[in-house]
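Our working data are protein records whose layout never changes between entries. Instead of coordinates, the fold is spelled out as a row of discrete tokens. Here is such a record, shown just as it appears in the course material:
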Amino acid sequence: MSASGSRLYSIFSYVWLPGLRVLLTGLLAVSGVAKLADVVAFAGDLENYRMLSPGSVSMLAVLFPCLEVTLAVTWWVRRIHVLVGGVVLALLEVYTAAVASAWWQGLDIRAGCFGRFFPLQLEDVVLRNFVVVLAAALVLRADIRASLENEKSEIRRGLQ
């Protein structure tokens, strides 16, 4: 890597990457807390997607927000940040696919917890979520890269 490329990567990894992680974990935490504040309304939102059986909606209406808050906190734990980042990325992709499916079917739904506060058209929510998925993928990629570098340095130390 050239000196300028190395400098750019350094700026990204020490400034932008933590900033992205703060934004993403903040988004997860606020999203989870907003859903927990009105679990009944969130259950109604889940029903509107027409993707879940009626029996599972109430359980998932409590489970999803708790999972979001837990992921927001644990994404900062160094030992498991790659695993948590993978789970976050998968959940964001599933949620984006569900919103895209609702948009494709022409369903009239509010998109999750932020739909009450910031009403958007579903196509705008899909675009916004696509950007969030890309941000989460960038953070996960950097986390994987850092973990591999740490492994290499530990192996080198062990061989000396």
Summary: The helical segments are 3-37, 39-48, 54-74, 81-105, 122-159. The mean pLDDT is 85. DSSP finds five helices and no strands in the chain. Residues 74 and 95 are 20 Å apart (CA to CA).
